[in-house]
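Bit of a strange request maybe. I'm writing a small parser for structure token strings and I need a real example to test against, not something I typed by hand. Could someone generate the tokens for this chain?
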Amino acid sequence: MCGIFGVMPPQPREIDVLHNQVTLGLDPIRHRGPDGSKCWVANNGAVGLGHVRLAIIDLDAGAQPMHSGDDRYTIVYNGEIYNYIELQREIGGDFSTQSDTEVILRAYQLWGAQCVARLRGMFALAIWDAKKQELFLARDRFGIKPLYWMVQDNIFFFASEVKALLPFVKAKEISSRALSDYFTFQFCLGEKTLLSGVSQMPAAHTAIVLPGRMPVFKKYWEVHYDIDYNHTERWFEARLKELVQDSIAIHLRSDVEIGSYVSGGLDSSLLASIARKTSSQSRFQAFNGRFLEGSRFDESSYAQALADEQGMRLHIADINEEDFVSHVGKVIWHLDQPVAGPGAFPQYMVSKIAGQHVKVVLGGQGGDEIFGGYARYLIAYFEQCIKGAIEGTLHDGNFVVTYESIIPNLQTLRQYQPMMQEFWSEGVFGERDARYWRLVNRSNTFGSILAAGVIDHAATYNEFQAIFKGENVGGGSYFDAMTHFDFKTLLPALLQVEDRMSMAHGVEARVPFLDHPLVEFAATIPADIKFRHGELKRLLKSVFSGVLPESITSRKDKMGFPVPLNLWLSKGGPAREYIGDVLGSTRARQRAYLNEGFTVDQVLNSQSVYGRNLWALLSLELWQNQFIDA
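Reply from user aminoacidic:
Good idea to test on real output. This should exercise your parser:
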């Protein structure tokens, strides 16, 4: 895990100029690579590349930028290729190092751009071809590793984080289309970022960049929901078990110690449990965070039960209101742009503890989107069951759930009653895409806070529909359409949090559920097996029921790392004072996206326990202070 930066002018420049630009770009992201850094500029001044390193594999000989034996190719790369050993054998010949970086370089020499299809892992990379005078970029299938780019004055820049590009942005402005996405979902769709002119390289794409030209992108992978109706449930269970265990085993390849985040939920507990049994390490360390505001904000007892049963050493971060005031600004700085909910803050604090003990951790991202872990899936199907019962069509076809079968699982929705009230306040029994839009659309909850026209509802909805009804989903189930949308949109946002919060403390986060053989297989499993009776993550629980404590597999109250932010506000104190100062400043109150009559008390006094409007406004203001106004 590392950080990369590059610059390519339209015509060759002085070597010193490019070297200084690379150094300037690397400075803001040195936290990504505490073990070393290096700049390189082509002899003819055509390109400059830089790299900061967190050494995980081949600690002594894997430094970058790395050159091919004939000096034609030069690579900078961030990530891990877990099948580098197998690829090294397939490529053959002598290797100068045991690093996965050299394997990628040799693979590109042998197979060209098609080499990415053979890579199993997470990566964002750039390879300069001195003969063709062109730059090759690639990003992993799921966007686990970040890569941003922009063109200023016909100069092409790329970097692992947006902040590395800031020194070269002439006019720092917010993208109106991205802002519309943000207030709708609390993340941006597609390639957009909140900083106008800066784009994300799309996941599962390669690109060729020539001097003075815009990059030409090409998709190399997609997940297809080609449902397999030819196998039994038992066969799916056996195959799933095999793929999960294989993914975890290959994700344990490292020359340094590996630990795991353990939230107390199914996904992270399962990964940690299997890793503990698979790993050759003499000890296995796990990391959890908790707030002391009561059981609604503390899942550590479940994590402790797992640790005690399986002999893990559990480190628990006790997080309080003072931590929030002291660190939330740093959280937003490292995030690069506000995204998702306030869970980034406790993730930052847990990663801080992890960084004191290990350099690599496993995380459970992807489990909810692949196996169906979000309560809104159950809410959506509950409505369909009521509709079918009223219309008398519930038993006419092969329904994933029925009114009778879903009832035992409804207690999962106990803490989601406000969401259900909002969901059913309008459009009941409408078309499925419109109903899921209502479940994921947060813009209605802002009321009169936002100025008219800030949200382009039509454009954002059209983009939502294009993803929700994607061709690769086909005529699949409601379940597949919902999970696919989250897989393509919410998951990248959560991966951004995972990457930035871990890298803020020099920790590499690995996500074994996002192994492409596993994801491709899961997409073929019929929805009535994955989501039968409306049971969240039913198949995962069925396959691995004997691996975890029963208290974890039978949980109906999984939280998702909630933050007691609104409780802190209700009792006054440092958090309320801090937020009041940030949002109540003259500059904050004059933001163009706020109504003229906006007051900070309007937000502070209107938050539910789990409401996120305040977080959305606070994190956006903190981001503007650091990325736009500074």
